[in-house]
Write a structure and sequence with these properties.
Layout lengths: L4 E3 L20 E3 L2 H13 L4 E6 L5 H11 L4 E6 L19 H10 L4 E3 L3 H4 L19 H4 L3 H16 L3 E5 L3 H14 L4 E5 L19 H6 L2 H14 L5 H13 L4 E9 L15 E8 L2 E8 L1
Parallel strand pairs: 2-5, 3-4, 3-6, 4-5, 6-7
Antiparallel strand pairs: 1-7, 8-9, 9-10
């Protein structure tokens, strides 16, 4: 695994389904915010760092890579498991998002996680609705923010809540959700959270498909074609390495490649600055190519750093 980069720095809900399952293994599972805060406070009093891996469950090899990097901090490793309703729009798959707390806790046990924080909706949003939001107003405007209105408000709000509850010294995020990573980094900087943000490279299946909880929704036929996202990014990377620096031609190469998969439909492709996420006039080393596409009914995202 590549070395991690470190950056310092009124919705009503459906019934809670995130905490379904009856785990009875060895890893300690906390449901209450007060219990989680007390555990973090005690760890810090004993001189330990607290490292948070925020997840929505359905743990896969990408999450495992985050957990293993968390262990490198040599402190208390906390994995939060919470399917956050405020980051799902009306056309998103909140009701169908995979949930298996028992399997997730067993995975955490195998990876020697110290604590699992698995709150209910009522614990995270006690009033049953939200009137206070955390919004990043620049990096979140384009791409996922444009395609999924309100998504990043929900992400920033729940991450802020988790930071307040878990009180981590470090939080670990994956680069697969590249825009999310940059939005969280900016939120931490702007609000002066005393949390270091570490990022871990995208974990891929042997055929290149980025590990994602949503891969479970792919049919076998769709799964065979889902690699087209990574193939399109490989085409762009090869073109760039051979001297093609026009973002329009690089984006067009993504469009052409994805069109070769009958079940795939491009949502967007963009060459952007790695920090500002602004479109570039000429692609350069370190810029990022973002892509989102539907494969059958499942929406997938991916990226590559040039």
């Amino acid at each position: 695994m590549e070395g991690a980069d470190v950056y310092h720095g009124g919705a009503h809900f459906l019934r809670d389904a995130a905490a379904s399952g009856r785990y009875s293994g060895c890893v300690k599972v906390l449901r209450a915010a007060g219990e989680m805060q007390a555990a973090s406070t005690e760890a810090k009093r004993s001189g330990r760092l607290v490292t948070l891996v925020p997840t929505m469950g359905a743990l896969h090899e990408g999450h495992i890579a985050l957990i293993r990097h968390a262990h490198e901090q040599q402190g208390l490793v906390v994995v939060s498991i919470y399917v956050n309703p405020t980051q799902f729009g009306p056309d998103d798959d909140f009701k169908h998002y995979p949930r298996d707390l028992d399997a997730d806790c067993h995975a955490c046990e195998r990876e020697n996680v110290d604590l699992v924080f698995a709150p209910s909706d009522e614990e995270m949003y006690p009033s049953g609705s939200v009137t206070t939001w955390i919004e990043e107003a620049k990096l979140a405007k384009r791409f996922e923010g444009e395609k999924r209105p309100g998504h990043f408000c929900g992400v920033c709000t729940v991450v802020a809540k988790l930071f307040n509850i878990v009180q981590p010294n470090v939080a670990i995020f994956g680069k697969k959700d590249y825009q999310q990573l940059k939005v969280i980094e900016r939120m931490v900087r702007d609000l002066r959270y005393p949390v270091g943000i570490a990022s871990v490279p995208t974990v891929r299946e042997p055929d290149g498909l980025a590990a994602s909880s949503r891969n479970q929704h792919l049919t076998s036929a769709d799964r065979a074609q889902a690699t087209v996202l990574w193939k399109s990014l490989g085409v762009v990377r090869d073109l760039f390495n051979h001297g093609e620096h026009s973002p329009h031609r690089l984006e067009a190469a993504v469009t052409r490649t994805i069109s070769l998969a009958p079940v795939a439909r491009l949502d967007y492709a963009a060459v952007v600055d790695a920090e500002t996420l602004e479109p570039v006039h000429e692609a350069k080393h370190g810029d990022v190519v973002l892509v989102a596409a539907y494969v059958g009914k499942t929406r997938l995202i991916d990226n590559v750093i040039l």
